[in-house]
Specification:
With 479 residues, this protein is mainly α. It has two domains: 407 residues, no CATH class; 60 residues. Helix 1 runs parallel beside helix 6. The radius of gyration is 23 Å and the shape is globular.
């Protein structure tokens, strides 16, 4: 637990600044861009994210899983570098062919921006995972912070001069280049790109099933934007994306910080000490994951309208306030599934099983979006997202048990539930106020009560566990 908290604190600093900056970017861009332009920006980012997931993410995940097992890292990284260059060349040819065949005029320049964004974002992600695998959280934070600050600074300047979708997209490219150059300075020295058959086969077996998994996860997260654009126009996609991203940049970053520290510790415990040690570590991971994310989700639900008015541009307030409560709970369910229950498939080296989980969620999401968006609009899309993530969580918990025995900490669930009820109790008895400072004060008091209850409950359960252990040892001696 001590190692988990220490690593989480370091990664909180490493990811905290980039998370704040990305959150700030949403506030800035929704004020500088119209909903139509923000919608185009969000759709391009979603498309690039999907392409990145399908084409490159399996490389990042393979590096994270296998780099610690290689005594000579160059053997793995030279092949990874060769595969990256091969994919870049292939996507360049495909994009050239698409340009020749014809792309709608209003999207042609966006596609030209999307291609280098895909390449540089993938290169940045790859270097980020290598840094994380080598347990260099400070360097990780410098790279992520450089990318975020550069992205927002350049994107804001360009959007101020030219309030169109190209501006923040260009900022993303410049940020990825700056962060990637900082991280890559010493990571690739001493070897050239290579394609070693044995290494390629290993990472393909591990990574390709995850590619399908993450691609379908992306469908669950972003298909609603494309369907909203299809049924209601790009403006609706922009309004929805702003509210969704505001929640995601808060909850997912918080849960990602825990996972970044927790997952390597679980792997280390499993490889070095065995199953029992790994399960003990996983119980700690689950407690910290729920303890961190739940109060943030509650604040998002309770103060959805106020937070939307504070963060987003005026044209986005009403739409975001309506969808934020549903999206907040949905994202919480998604994070628990992705950063805890899905680890069964990765620790058990049966990543193909995750396809069934996200496949069920993707089918649910698309079907419900098609059914509900025409009738209910943005709120219908939020309902579909909630339903899809609930299906994914249940499916992952059921199927994952057959692959790897992921434990469930009912003690952690009880602690979080009691602390959350105390937090909601404060909100119920508090007078309804308006104004930024009043809302911040009320939310701060709620979070303070939650933290105090969590600390008291943690010490209570800890002392009970110690007394139980002493009683068990005493009984054993007497026996």
């Amino acid at each position: 637990m001590t190692s988990l908290l220490r690593h989480s604190a370091i990664y909180l600093l490493a990811r905290g600044l980039p998370g704040i900056v990305n959150f700030l970017a949403i506030a800035i861009y929704t004020r500088l861009l119209s909903p139509d332009e923000y919608g185009r920006y969000a759709l391009v980012v979603a498309g690039v994210g999907l392409a990145n997931t399908v084409l490159f993410q399996w490389l990042c995940l393979s590096v994270l899983r296998f780099l610690p097992t290689y005594q000579t890292p160059a053997q793995l990284l030279s092949s990874v570098k060769g595969v990256y260059y091969a994919i870049v060349g292939a996507t360049g040819l495909i994009a050239a062919g698409a340009a020749v065949l014809g792309v709608p005029a209003e999207w042609k320049r966006l596609v030209l921006v999307a291609l280098p964004l895909l390449w540089f974002q993938a290169w940045f992600d790859l270097n980020l995972e290598i840094t994380r695998t080598r347990l260099h959280p400070v360097r990780y934070g410098l790279g992520a912070g450089t990318r975020a600050l550069t992205m927002v600074a350049t994107g804001t300047l360009l959007a101020h001069w030219y309030p169109v979708a190209y501006a923040p997209l260009t900022g993303l490219i410049i940020g990825a280049v700056a962060g990637g150059m900082l991280l890559a300075r010493k990571q690739w020295w001493g070897f050239w790109a290579n394609l070693e058959k044995k290494v390629i086969q290993q990472i393909l077996r591990y990574g390709l099933p995850l590619t399908g998994t993450f691609a379908l996860s992306f469908v669950v997260s972003y298909s609603d934007r494309f369907l909203l654009a299809h049924y209601l126009g790009e403006q609706a996609a922009g309004l929805y994306a702003a509210g969704y991203d505001m929640v995601s940049q808060t909850l997912i970053v918080a849960m990602m910080v825990v996972n970044m520290a927790a997952y390597p510790l679980a792997i280390s415990a499993l490889e070095q000490q065995g199953l029992e040690a790994a399960q003990t570590q996983l119980l700690h991971n689950m407690w910290l994951l729920l303890t961190t994310a739940t109060p943030l989700a509650v604040v998002m639900v309770v103060f959805s309208s106020e937070i939307s008015s504070l963060i987003l541009g005026r044209q986005f307030h009403e739409a975001a306030g309506a969808i934020v409560p549903w999206v907040s709970v949905a994202v919480l369910l998604s994070g628990v599934r992705a950063y805890y229950f899905d680890l069964a498939f990765q620790l058990g080296k049966h990543t193909l099983g995750q396809l069934w989980v996200v496949g069920a969620a993707a089918v649910t999401n698309i079907a419900l979006n098609i059914e509900w968006i025409p009738s209910w609009g943005l709120v219908g899309a939020a309902w579909a997202t909630f339903a899809a993530y609930a299906v994914a969580l249940v499916t992952s918990a059921i199927l994952g048990k057959k692959v790897f025995p992921i434990p469930i900490s009912w003690k952690a669930i009880t602690q979080v539930a009691i602390a959350t009820l105390a937090m909601l109790g404060v909100w119920c008895v508090s007078p309804r106020t308006s104004g930024t400072w009043a809302i911040l004060l009320q939310a701060g008091v709620m979070l303070l009560v939650y933290c105090c209850c969590t600390l008291i409950l943690f010490r209570f359960f800890r002392q009970r566990q110690i007394r139980w252990g002493q009683r068990s040892r005493s009984t054993g001696v007497e026996t």
